[in-house]
Specification:
The protein is mainly α. The protein is built from three helices and no strands. It has helices at residues 2-22, 29-50, 57-76. Helix 1 (2-22) runs antiparallel to helix 2, helix 1 (2-22) packs across helix 3 and helix 2 (29-50) packs across helix 3. The chain is globular, with a radius of gyration of 13 Å.
Amino acid sequence: MFPVLIGTVVIAGIVGYASERTGFTRNGYVASIVICVGGAFLFYFLRIMFGLRIGTPGIDAVLSSVGALIIVPTHWRRRR
């Protein structure tokens, strides 16, 4: 269980860095990585507590990280 948690954090960090590097988001590197890791942690604990799964733990980490990147910045962005 612990190696899966570490792998989830690493995959989420890579997704956050890659999304900022490719221009998918414009939050800043640290903010994107924190958002991805937070989303991956949330889904990891939902996976443990309720058995909610989409696929393998790696796929779950990638999808939850991308989902967090889509939801969080657009929710808090100011409208002009």
